[in-house]
Input
Amino acid sequence: MTELWVKNACVIDPIRGINGEIMDIAIRDGRIVESVSDRADVIDAQRCLTLPGGIDSHTHVSGTKVNFGRYMSPEDMRAGRTKRKGKMHVTSGYYVPTTFGNSYRYSAMGYTTLLEGAMAPLEARHTHEEFTATPHQDMMANTLFDGNWAVMDAVREKDVRKTAAVVAWTLKAARGYGIKLTNPGGTEAWGWGEDLTGIHDMVPHFAVTPAEIITTMIRANELLKLPHSVHLHCNNLGKPGNYQTTLETFELVPDLNAARQTLYATHVQFHAYGGGTWKNICSKAEEITRSVNSKPQIVMDMGQIMFGRTMTMTADGPMEFNLHCLHNNKWSNHDVELETGSGIIPVTYSKKSAVNCIMWAIGLELALLTKNPYQCLLETDNPNGAPFVKYPEVIGLLMSKRYRDEECATLAAGVEQRTSLCALEREMDWHDIAVMTRAGQAKALGIGSQGKGHLGVGAEADIAIYPIRTDSVDPAREYRKVVEGFQKTRYTIKRGRVVSRDGEIIVDGANATFWVDAKVPEDLKMENDPEFIKRFEQFYTVRMSNYPVQDVYLPRGRRIETEVFT
Amino acid sequence: MKFVLNTGRTVPQGTSVEHKGSDTYRTVASAGFLNPIDMMLLGIEDGDRIRLTTPAGHIVLTSRPAEGVVRGEVFVAIGPYANHIISSETHGTGMPDFKSQSVDVEPTGEPVKSVGELMEAIGGLRF
Amino acid sequence: MRVILESKVRAKPNLPIEAEAIIPRNFLKGTDLVVYEGNKERTLSELFWIFVEGTAVAPENIEVILKGDTSRIKRVGEYMDTGSIVIEGDIGMHCGNFMSGGTIEIRGNADSWLGREMRGGTILCRGNAGHYCATGYRGEKKGMQGGKVEVSGNTGDFCAEYLAGGTVHIHGSAGDFPGVEMRGGELIIEGDATRPCGNMKSGTCVILGTVHDMLPTFEKIERRVLPAWKITADVYRGDVANRGKGTLCVRC
Amino acid sequence: MIEHDVVCPFCGCLCDDLEIETEGGRIVKVQNGCALAESTFMNDVRLPAPIRRTETGWEDISYQEAIKETAEILQGADRPLLYGWSSTHGEAQSVGVHIAELIGAVIDNTSTVCHGPSILAIQEVGHPGCTLGQVKNRADVIIYWGCNPVEAHPRHMSRYTTYATGFFVPDAQRERTVIVVDTRRTDTAGIADEFVQIEHGGDYAVLSALRAIVRGKASVIPAKVAGVSKEQLIRIAEICKTAKFGAIFFGLGLTMSRGKYKNIRNAIELTDELNRYTKFVISPLRGHGNVYGSNEVFTWMTGYPFAVDFARGIAFYNPGETTAVDILRRGECDAALIVASDPGANFPRAAAAHLAKIPTIVIDPHVNATTALSRIHIPCTAAGIDAAGTAYRMDGVPIRLKKVIDRGYPDDAEILKKIYDHLNGGKGP
Output
């Protein structure tokens, strides 16, 4: 039995309605309890800001595409190199760090749970191997279905039950967490070097549209009672004028779940562009947030970009190729048979580029214009918009109008005319930030019941104690203190153990991987469906029996079973 | 005569690769494939032995005719025989010139060595 | 001030030494510097006899002289910004990496990656230089960006790969692919070269000797006199495989 | 007993449809595999126990002794080299990387003498590729450049390309155009619709010419490039541009010939250019069964796919400097651990010879050429035969190798962990 007592913590725990109370937290064997014995180890939080462990609900840290980003970037590996020290393994890389680099840096920032944004089921084993080498965060993987042939066939037949059955089989095979759609239909078209231009275009050879895929998958998702909603990377990412596609997509979404959203729209900054060319691109954040503010069924995340060099990587292969034709730097592409695609290119977001400045402003506008912080979560689509180590700066910008104004003064012209950022007075408070970095994520991902995102009795003791005194720091003026404070926790506690202290990792990690075992009625089990089996064996290049991820890849797998639907 | 030494994988080499002490492996890895016209010019026939020399050393191989090999090239399965005479220069890339080593080829009566003998020639000891 | 470093005899003379600490500026504060031999940390005095003559108040007045077997010492002059280094014999890899000022003279041969990612200053190598002379790092888009590298002898392959600025002057011959991926700067080869300027985007390369295996994707623009070199040269534009607008002048 | 859907660990194809029949702990029959697979499973003669070289010959030693001495040799070294890794599973590779970071070693895998140049090229320009099923289901133009799958990857054509029935290519033989580019008229060339015979070392020039032609700059190209006529080049460019889905596979003919990675870079940039007209992909034909896995494991742990030098504590990478052949040629390393590979046979003479001058330890199921150069050889399981583990196919698809029999050997990952424990004062990685 191990016990820990955190005293004098200034707790913000939005899910439980606690906002800045000084209190003590008792921990036994990794969970929060009512009280501990007097033999418990004691941490004096000294009235510092104490939050549930951070949760990133959309990041790219593990798997085929991320590793390829590393593989092709020896120049980035020269940045951020650290030696082996104590319990810390060697790390390399800045925008595509090694797995240990990701894990240590997230941990230093108080993050204890991550959702890998995109995993192709065929390559799921790879993602899980990297999860075990990302030891300080509990992991889960969004599973890609955007170009899944069996799904598109079922969608064409308007068969929600069959769609759900394919999803359930695939999630189990891949040990995945939820449904990810990346440029639905577009990744299949990219198999021929083509893309779709809107949600009503036909996917070549499959006679379905993105709109049909999205709506059918939403219904299948709710039929299966998955903890998370459909997680969507809208069509037309990064194209001027794409906000209309985004708004049209939002209009498709019914409100089907009382406990959470029905659609999670990711990195919406990249989907909120007006204009028709790069010359006249402008912000449509107001239109997007007007829609979201009236639709509780939608949660989005920011997709904030920050200036500097980074790597873009997404399953959206065609988008990456278009971007490559603009940048003419190196380009990797990796299409996955019967499932999805992916592309990777390095980019530099520059303050000298009006387009980049507008993108930067849009992300912030989205957050500031969304009334309910539970509906706009903080992330950078790591590393697409910026490496996650920039989150503290994003927090600083959201909390301080002055910081934003100072940044705006250094930017190329355009921000003031083509976005509304400069006119926005809103300054977020500590509670808003706590929602946008953990409580909101826990709710959106449906992991509150797994004891994530709050500090109630029974919760997993994932806790971040920041060297910030909310009673003495004025974030509007002293934003640098805010940024610094969020860069390194004083303590990061993972399942009751102090894993990181003042930025230094002090124990070997032992993370868990959450995955969803969605139950379907007996007659819908794909493993017994002769047509499904036949097609699999004919067109995949691995045998169906070798496809599912074995349990050995999830040494600390946490299976979430759903109730079977009828 | 001057040739370019080219190396590559072959099925017989691959099937015996885990048995480098075997006679089969010796036979397949020590075959030097030449264009028949070059063999004529060298005055050798199928099965005659040839000696290949480079600045790195020399090696004796058994010659084999192969129509697919272009004139001026000698093809040898990837392995210890070819490597016995390939320079370890990598041009700063890590990769030696496995496919573009220039060699002198001449007929010889010397025997073909075993892999063990080759390893002993560079300081090893056969198990 | 002169700092003379004479290499000591080592038990394992083939072990590489990494000595990025050897730059003039560092000797302002003494000779208590750390270098690395294989995977072990050493003090400078463990590996060198150190002699200091005179004093200096500014780094530009410091001259460092390396004597003895220095052929395995890497990264000498890395990030050097002023002063001078003279190497009496051969020098190991990565001499003058990221150098931005000052001068390095090598009286013997230089190993590969001489002047890698150099930004300024001058390197003079009186012997031959190895592969990747005056180039960049793997995956990086720009190689040498400024300064001058002059080699009296020959260089190995891939000389001035990704050259983006500055001047590289080879008095002897260059190996395979000099000026490959060039995007700026000037490359002069007085001797011969094989397959020069593959995939070049921009910059100028002048070759006074014989070109072997000229690539098929260079467009001959004109024949003209180059007064600086007192020669008549064929002037090519390329590499057209890559929309390149580089200039390659070959003596005719 | 018959085990179905067994994965062959021999080459980068990792065919996973073999049927292996075992009888009393022995493999008696292999079905569906190629000749290479059959010999891999059937003729599996092993070194029975650890051996150590003495003044005059070899002696048997215990595993415990072998492991202890290995650890002591590595501990005392100033520049140890850990090399090989491509014929074992990822689990062993990952322990290898941990050992390297612990003792400040150089760790390199066999891609260094295989597709290392492809990696260097990818690091310059990226890699437009796909999984093999995309090619199987879609490709109507296949190019084999500087490779000979008939000999090196015997089932590549029947599983993934020329003869494979695909969803959009139901009549593969009729609907796919196969182009072979090589200096030799290989058996693969024999089945090509179009064979392009290139002069030695002429690949770069031919690729440059094709890129220029695709871009509409044919006028610049001379009548012949490295022995290939301009007419043929124009014809090839046209076939590529009008393909619905084209796939280039390349091999050691590009990576090992003069110019090395620049050849690959040029081929990738040709692919890139072709994507402006149609869909095109390119992929290396990887040799060892799990060589791609060693690149993957090295990359997520260190940031680099091969040739990683931990001498300074941090990971440093510079092929040509930190690659195994170079370190051996320069006589830098003073101890070597060779796992699941045979540099004695596969490295040029001078590099291999250095292994005999220093204490070299081999961990490998089989006696190989390197055994003769070693001080200690420790036998272990063979991944995919008597050990399970992860391997990555040449296209990055991870597949679990199966254990089909038990022969009583320890897994190499276990041996390596014990070495690590010794080095780390009894604490595991």
